[in-house]
Amino acid sequence: MRLLAVLLCLGSCLWAEDLIFLSVNSQGAEEWFRVKDGATVVRVPRGEYARRPYEGKIATRKPQPLFVESFYVDRTEVTNAQFARYLNAVPDAAQFVRPEVPGLQRAEKGWRASPGREAHPVTACTGDGAVAFAKWIGGRIPTTAEWEKAAGGVEGKLWPWGAASPDATRANFGGKGGLLPVGSFQAGASPFGCLDMAGNATERTMTDRGPIVIKGGSWVTPHTLNLRVLDMCVQPMAVAENSVGFRCVMDDPEPKRESRKAGKPAVLRVAKSWDAAVAEATKRGVPIFLSLQFDTCGQCDRTRAQLFRDPRFVAYCNERMVVAVGHKPGDAVDEPHLEHEDGSCSLYSGLKCYEHHALFSKAIQVVGRFEVSPGNFVVSSDGKTVLVRERELPKWGWAVEEYLAKFEKVRSAR
């Protein structure tokens, strides 16, 4: 019994490292960031939902209550970019890819998503590939009941958004145009905030014979009835074609836990000085993310406005990094950014301007120099060794995936 308890605890700890809490969405459901592949996942609490029987246009039978244990489900379908990350981590998984289906291609080193299709649902992998990917991220393919609850909610809605007939604002269907990037139809969100559960790519659900039952309809679906939550079809395991994708679920290690309530959005925590950053990083055993910026740098502006406010970036850095920001006026030395009367900075919450000036001067002695601002680096916890240099990190603001992938690479190498 003691060994079992240890193993259960270990499993829970390992699971806890896979997900980082983000926020409570507008539907009241918890959203978490899955570090392994960069997905946002939604927690569906335990309890019954109203399961509709499969029937034609006119409903004659009442929905029946069905209990489903709590689980975490991907907010969107798995994308080509996510699957390419898996292929590069597990080269043998290439056996699950059908090269005649667009979306994935060989690169100089490994695999990549086809240009312009990075955010499209991955449809070039077989059912076996879907199962293998789900196992790689620590999850599985949803059961039909789990998929239906995530799509139709507790009330068992006819379509994810309710009883209103599908239209071009809610779903991608009708057989024209092909696949679109995941999350393109916010108006089609389910009661838990899941997207694309009607249209775009039909999704695999698990049976005792594997994930051969597909649900939700796709871009090739001509009739709106086939987009209903209750509708279903079949796709063999070995088949891959340009209208069938999948999303993953993960078991909830605390199924009876009450759902979190909405709170204030998380704010990126920044160290008050270089010495403080090193002291905290050393104590926690985590690396330092250092960003050196100027007032007159447009790329710095975009980094602060986008990267530093992205909930995934904020959650990751607050939990697994120490962030240090050095900032100087640059060419605006005669007219620097606003400093409040108490000396607090208008750009960085919790800092005074003299603090980010001093941090810049001290940190630049560690990294030496940088060519193009912002000068972003990853530094060892003792503040002495540069682990990731400026050229290895993007300069534009909307590069969350690239930053977190690099951070994880550093973390796994430690």
Describe the structure.
- This protein is α+β, with helices and mostly antiparallel strands and about 425 residues long.
- The chain has 2 domains: about 20-250, paralog of FGE (formylglycine-generating enzyme); about 275-414, Glutaredoxin.
- The chain is about 25% helix and about 20% strand.
- The protein has helices spanning about 1-20, 80-90, 125-135, 145-150, 275-285, 300-305, 310-320, 355-365, 400-414; strands at about 20-25, 30-35, 40-45, 45-50, 65-70, 70-75, 105, 110-115, 200-205, 210-215, 235, 245, 250, 290-295, 320-330, 375-380, 385-390.
- The protein has a 5-stranded antiparallel beta sheet with strand order 1-2-3-6-13. A 4-stranded mixed beta sheet has the order 11-10-9-12, with helices on one face.
- The longest helix is centred in the first third of the chain and has 17 residues, at about 1-20.
- The protein is elongated, with a radius of gyration of 24 Å.
- Mean pLDDT is about 95; it is low at about 1-15.
Features:
single chain, 414 residues, alpha+beta, paralog of FGE (formylglycine-generating enzyme), Glutaredoxin, 2 domains, five-stranded antiparallel β-sheet, four-stranded mixed β-sheet, 17 strands, 25% helix, 19% strand, disordered N terminus
Write the topology of this structure.
Elements: H1 2-18, E1 19-24, E2 30-34, E3 39-44, E4 47-51, E5 64-68, E6 71-74, H2 80-89, E7 104-107, E8 110-113, H3 127-136, H4 144-152, E9 202-207, E10 210-215, E11 233-234, E12 244-245, E13 249-251, H5 274-284, E14 288-294, H6 298-305, H7 311-320, E15 322-328, H8 353-367, E16 375-379, E17 386-388, H9 400-413
Parallel strand pairs: 9-12, 14-15
Antiparallel strand pairs: 1-2, 2-3, 3-6, 4-5, 6-13, 7-8, 9-10, 10-11, 14-16, 16-17
